[in-house]
Amino acid sequence: MGMNNVGPVIRMSSSGTHGAGGVGCCCFRCCTCIHVEFLKSLPGIMKIGETLISGLIQSLLINYGLRYSSTIGSAFEGSLTTASACFLTSALLLACYAVSEKTYRLIRSSLFEMMFNSVACFLYLSSASYLAFATKVFLTVEYYVKPAFDVYPAMTAAYILSGVVGVLHGADAYICYKQYKSGR
Questions:
Q1: In 3-state terms, what secondary structure has residue 33?
Q2: What is the spatial distance between Cα 134 and Cα 75, in angstroms, rounded to a whole number?
């Protein structure tokens, strides 16, 4: 009795979200390693948005809030940790998806992408509310006393953007969940 222990077979369909890679120039294509169609798709636009907003939040926190991290407290640290981790992961996923259609089809509808976006949504929304509280409690008085006090508007922008990107990650998690359940 010979049993053949063959694992699962993953079949890749030839039709994907990317189509032909690269940018059309006259009668030929250049930069064929970049899948422009992904960058134009809803998941691509969402991933670009998540990456850019996360980078902007991280920049605001480091450039304006770092000097006042002891005043703001653990709300600053939580926001910076969330922005840094989510920026790195989103940027890596964006880079992988932009250069590899196979990676996009394998990871996008996977449990990893769904869980990452769900956790990022939770972390961003909770850190946004905590940073909003800390900003209002610890920085408001100083902002009205010193007109050149630039950390208050920067932290306000950081917690508003954190809320926005948290909702964006939540929408992305829902789309990933639908793709995961449908098996695409």
A1: coil
A2: 6
**pTM to 2 decimal places:** 0.82
pLDDT of 14 reads 43
* Single-letter residue type at 168: L
The answer on pLDDT for 20 being more than 90 is no
Instruction: Place 13 in a pLDDT band, splitting at 50, 70 and 90.
Output: very low
Distance CA 159, CA 163 (A): 6
- What is the sign, positive or negative, of the torsion defined by CA atoms of 64, 67, 71, 77? positive
Candidates 132, 93, 114, 129; CA nearest to 169 is 114
Tokens of 31: 């930069």
φ, ψ of residue 18 to 5 degrees: the values are -95, -40
Helix H, strand E, coil C: the string for 130-175 is HHHHHHHHHHHHHHHHCCCCCHHHHHHHHHHHHHHHHHHHHHHHHH
Within 13 A of 27's CA, how many CA atoms are on the CB side? 0
Q: Tokens representing 115?
A: 């869980």
Q: pLDDT tens for residues 25-52?
A: 555 555 567 878 899 999 999 999 999 9
**pLDDT at 141 (0 to 100):** 86
Instruction: Name the DSSP class of 3.
Output: -
